[in-house]
């Protein structure tokens, strides 16, 4: 079955929101650990990060949020997504150990490309600009699945699914058998369906954060529309 | 690219989204090709001479520092009024060699934005400059210059509304338009190979100043002093003397933007360096009367020079910089930018007699800010 991944920013309501996302059919939840200067993020996630930091969501508070989410949603893998600056300050190995202790299944570091700190086990990202050689390197080092960034750009909803995705999937399939999940710019069930035709899963971030503003029930219903769209794609 | 490339001690590196890695590899190859190509150096020398006004003179400041033999390296006399043109010209030539026709840049005081807009006009390149909304207000004449030169200045309305946010937004533009666009970074910061490229392009300051100082005094200076925001004028003048162990190297930061004096190892804008940051790695705000020093980070090579002890870093307050700004104007008939006024403030206190100061830019842009402090 193809996977639905939902990104949420860490915050006081996150455990309930993550539970609602799981109820709506999310297979995995990414928990954003906010950074003051997030280079890979567009306006929605940037604003969510600014707000989370104002609310005191520093690294320790995010790890506590992760642990509470784990208790409330015991069966859904949880993956912190953050930036190098937080790990540099907290200690790279200590961060990985404490996140694992708090219930993380893996880790995503948006500004730590494949080849850098290769000993830090994490889900690697690749982009339409990645060379075949870099696709191979990222696939070799990735933890479970490969995160395909569908656009050359930052996070955020787009009108249409990126036309660059199909070629990226084709190049990735040629070098690896690991599952490929597509993210960045996916916001509607139509996008989700179209992306799932090509890949093994989809990631929704900015739009999920906007919907989460309206509470857990709205998020659950939204995720269900994505779940249904992805499930409507026949497995090959 | 291995994980050890582009490192100064443990500083530097490439902490950027994957999307940019191929572009950084391409830039690195293009830079190495250019470095190995005599035609590139000849073109840059020619542009520096016939367009930029190089070599810039060395001026003795006898009334400003009567008990010393203190010399100013006059980058304020370079075309566009600051050392920033050295880097902008060089990177524009590299961008053309790479076939990029669109340039994005960030600017704080506006000097790098003006230099970038200038070279883009000279070469017919499309130019977009990101500038914090607060800085646009503080440096209005430079915004008008950039517009006149045909650049589009995009205000950055979130976060600190200064250079830090403008830099993040320029990098986000580059991520989005990486296939057509060269990011013309203004200081020796950012992911590898930028710190090296900017240092090499600014090293002309140190090469010239070394020859000029020896011609004037028959020996090397005892101390070389420059202001440090991101640190490009300092790294450029230091480059001429870093191998001369007897020459003391001193950088001067703004007191409330002292990334080297009071920062911690942290990651900002694609590199690990010494950064004003808290215990969680979140970046803190810098404050300075000088928009060009109002930046919480610094080039990774400076962090390494500090740790190795080869260079030392002092600071000066807004008031000290303002006093030096006025005194140089009145004693020497040279109105310095507020940025090098920080270096001037510390230069006269040094115990050495033979002093070389990098006068990195002229102060016309700062008149409104200075006059506002007089009331």
Q: Averaged pLDDT of chain A, please?
A: 96
What is the number of helical segments of chain A per DSSP (H or I, 4+ residues)?
10
What characterizes the major β-sheet of chain B?
6 strands, mixed
Largest sheet of chain A: 8 strands, parallel
For the residues shown, what is the average pLDDT of chain B? 95
Distance between the termini of chain B: 54 Å
In brief, what are we looking at here?
Chain A has ten helices and eight strands. Chain A has 236 residues and is of the alpha/beta class.
Structure write-up:
Chain A has 236 residues and is α/β, with parallel strands linked by helices. Chain A contains 10 helices and 8 strands. Chain A has helices at 14-23, 43-54, 59-72, 84-90, 92-101, 132-141, 165-175, 189-198, 206-212, 216-231, and strands at 3-9, 28-32, 78-82, 108-109, 125-126, 146-149, 180-183, 201-204. Chain A has an 8-stranded parallel beta sheet with strand order 4-3-2-1-8-7-6-5. In chain A, helix 1 (14-23) runs parallel beside helix 3 (59-72) and helix 1 (14-23) packs parallel to helix 10. Chain A is globular. The mean pLDDT of chain A is 96. Helix content of chain B is 43%, strand content 18%. Chain B is built from 14 helices and 14 strands. Chain B has helices at 21-35, 38-52, 84-97, 111-123, 133-138, 140-148, 163-176, 194-217, 232-238, 259-262, 300-308, 318-332, 338-347, 367-374; strands at 7-8, 11-12, 58-60, 69-74, 102-107, 126-132, 152-156, 181-183, 223-227, 248-254, 264-268, 271-275, 311-316, 354-359. In chain B, helix 2 (38-52) crosses helix 3. The model of chain B has no long low-confidence stretch (mean pLDDT 95). Chain A binds chain B through residues 35-40, 42, 46-47, 50, 53, 58-60, 83-90, 110-118, 124-131, 134, 138, 149, 152-154, and chain B through 1-3, 13-23, 158-159, 164, 168, 171-172, 175-179, 264-270, 272, 277-283.
């Amino acid at each position: 079955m193809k996977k639905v991944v939902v990104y949420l920013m860490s915050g006081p309501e996150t455990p309930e929101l993550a539970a609602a996302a799981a109820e709506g059919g999310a297979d995995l939840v990414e928990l954003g650990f906010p950074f003051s200067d997030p280079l890979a993020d567009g306006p929605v996630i940037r604003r969510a990060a600014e707000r989370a930091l104002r609310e005191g969501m520093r690294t320790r508070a995010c790890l506590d949020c992760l642990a509470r989410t784990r208790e409330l949603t015991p069966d859904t893998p949880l993956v912190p997504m953050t930036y190098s600056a937080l790990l540099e300050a907290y200690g790279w190995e200590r961060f990985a150990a404490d996140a694992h202790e708090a219930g993380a299944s893996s880790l995503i570091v948006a500004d730590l490309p494949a080849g850098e700190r290769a000993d830090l086990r994490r889900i690697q990202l690749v982009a339409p600009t990645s060379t075949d050689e870099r696709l191979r390197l990222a696939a070799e080092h990735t933890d479970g699945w490969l995160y395909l960034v569908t656009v050359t750009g930052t996070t955020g909803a787009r009108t249409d699914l990126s036309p660059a995705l199909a070629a990226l999937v084709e190049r990735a399939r040629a070098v690896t058998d690991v599952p490929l999940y597509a993210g960045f710019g996916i916001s509607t069930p139509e996008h989700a369906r179209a992306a799932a035709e090509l890949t093994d899963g989809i990631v929704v971030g900015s739009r999920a954060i906007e919907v989460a503003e309206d509470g857990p029930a709205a998020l659950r219903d939204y995720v269900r529309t994505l779940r249904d769209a992805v499930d409507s794609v026949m497995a090959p | 690219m291995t994980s050890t490339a582009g490192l100064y001690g443990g500083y530097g590196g490439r902490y950027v989204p994957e999307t940019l890695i191929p572009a950084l590899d391409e830039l690195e190859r293009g830079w190495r090709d250019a470095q190995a190509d005599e035609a590139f150096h000849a073109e840059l020398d020619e542009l520096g001479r016939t367009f930029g006004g190089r070599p810039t003179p060395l001026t003795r400041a006898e009334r400003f520092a009567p008990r010393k033999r203190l010399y100013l390296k006059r980058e304020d006399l370079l075309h566009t009024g600051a050392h920033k043109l050295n880097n902008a010209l060089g990177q524009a030539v590299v961008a053309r060699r790479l076939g990029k026709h669109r340039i994005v840049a960030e600017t704080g005081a506006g000097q790098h934005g003006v230099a970038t807009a200038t070279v883009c006009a000279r070469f017919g390149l499309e130019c977009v400059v990101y500038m914090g909304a607060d800085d646009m207000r503080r440096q209005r004449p430079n915004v008008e210059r950039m517009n006149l030169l045909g650049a589009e200045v995009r205000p950055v309305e979130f976060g600190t509304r200064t250079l830090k946010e403008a830099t993040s937004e320029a990098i986000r533009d580059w991520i989005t338009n990486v296939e057509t666009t060269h990011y013309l970074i203004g200081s020796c910061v950012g992911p590898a190979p930028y710190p090296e490229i900017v240092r090499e392009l600014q090293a002309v300051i140190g090469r010239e100043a070394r020859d000029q100082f020896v011609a004037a005094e028959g020996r090397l200076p005892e101390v070389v002093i420059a202001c440090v925001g991101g640190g490009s004028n300092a790294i450029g003048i230091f480059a001429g003397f870093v191998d001369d162990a007897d020459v003391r190297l001193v950088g001067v930061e703004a007191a409330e933007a002292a990334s080297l004096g009071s920062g911690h190892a942290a990651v900002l804008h694609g590199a690990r360096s010494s950064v004003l940051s808290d215990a969680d790695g979140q970046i803190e705000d810098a404050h300075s009367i000088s928009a060009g020093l109002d930046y919480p980070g610094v080039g990774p090579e400076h962090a390494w020079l500090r740790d190795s002890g080869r260079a030392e870093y002092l600071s000066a307050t807004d008031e000290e910089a303002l006093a030096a700004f006025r005194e140089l104007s009145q004693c020497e008939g040279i109105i310095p930018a507020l940025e090098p006024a920080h270096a001037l403030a510390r230069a006269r206190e040094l115990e050495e007699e033979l002093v070389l100061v990098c006068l990195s830019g002229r102060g016309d842009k700062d008149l409104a800010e200075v006059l506002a402090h007089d009331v």
